[in-house]
Amino acid sequence: MPIGHESTLTADRICRASSEDVRLLGQQIVPAILATCTPCAINWDLCVPYESYEVMERQRAKEFLEMQLNGAKNGENFLGQWLRRENFIIVAIDGGAGSGKTTTARMLAERCNFAFVSTGEHYRILTQLFLRKNIAAGDRSALINLLSQLRPTTLFHGCYAHFSLDGNVITPEELRRQEINFSIPDYAAIPEVRAFLREYNRQLPFAVLSAGFRGMVIEGRDIGSAVFPEAQVRAYLFVDTKERVRRRALEGICDDVEGRDRRDEGQMRMAQDVWLIDGTNLSAEDVVQLLQARLKEESHESSPR
């Protein structure tokens, strides 16, 4: 089927489609419509959630593709509509290095039986790949070419949704090598890298729901502002620099927190209406309890009266 023939996408065709057919429809039709809205070349396999090829009902695949198409044509936010329809919860937690956002997000996900997503892991995995391929951050052409060839998958280990490029999970110890710590801000600042991972993460709710979770907690630098502005709970976790340095040292991480802040400044985007939490004198448990209370408020406000 030629790219651009979106008229061939019909409800009956998708309902009859095999899992492979659904994947191909996502590759061929959705890209043709969305490409004009995209600032760079990305992996259009991302248009259909990875885990859903075999487990997602064909009706859900049909609805997903139709929402993608309608949203692209009409400029509507299909994800926001989908979240309300499915009653799926997204908690976005942003913060600087050493702020405790990863620990807090993981604890909250476990407490609520939500999926946990660490976008820092995503950037570290890509940074490791770029370094292994000897592609410098300044070589934009080589970076874009490599990104176009990647076929990432999501592996669920308990509630942890891991980003994977080869079907394996890389250990935290490997991803926190000093070489990666030093290089990650340079690669993370590249617009094409951020766009690639933003598109990947924007598809995660569909895969997470297919895996049996009713929500996800995702942490990073600009999740509430750039990745999921539709999230029902968006929090920015602020922690004083000295306290963050102390916490990193306790974790055995030799990291230039102030240097990371300066290099990450372009990616640290806090929306005006985000919930600012000062966690300087709070434990991770304290912050989790605050977030749980906010989730209860959100649940009460969104429930039918």
Describe the protein in words:
The chain has 305 residues and is α/β, with parallel strands linked by helices. It has two domains: 76 residues, no CATH class; 216 residues, Rossmann fold (3-Layer(aba) Sandwich), CATH 3.40.50.300. Helix content is 54%, strand content 12%. The strands form two sheets. Strands 2-5-1-6-7 form a five-stranded parallel β-sheet, sandwiched between helices. It has a two-stranded antiparallel ribbon with strand order 3-4. Helix 2 packs parallel to helix 4 and helix 7 crosses helix 10. It is globular and about 50 Å long. It starts with 10 loop residues before the first helix and ends with a helix. The N terminus is likely disordered.
Keywords for this entry:
two-stranded antiparallel ribbon, alpha/beta, Rossmann fold, 5-stranded parallel sheet, 2 domains, globular, 7 strands, 15 helices
Largest sheet data: 5 strands, parallel
Distance between the termini: 48 Å
Name of the level-1 CATH class of the largest domain: Alpha Beta
CATH superfamily of the largest domain: P-loop containing nucleotide triphosphate hydrolases
Question: In sequence order, what are the helices and strands, one letter per element?
Answer: HHHHHEHEHHEEHHHEHEHHEH
CATH topology of the largest domain: Rossmann fold
- Low confidence ranges: 1-57
CATH architecture of the largest domain: 3-Layer(aba) Sandwich
* Number of separate domains: 2
Strand order of the largest sheet: 2-5-1-6-7
- Binned, the helix content reads 40-55%
Strand content: 5-15%
Shape: globular
Using the CA coordinates, give the radius of gyration.
Answer: 19 Å
Count of distinct strands:
7
The secondary-structure class comes to alpha/beta
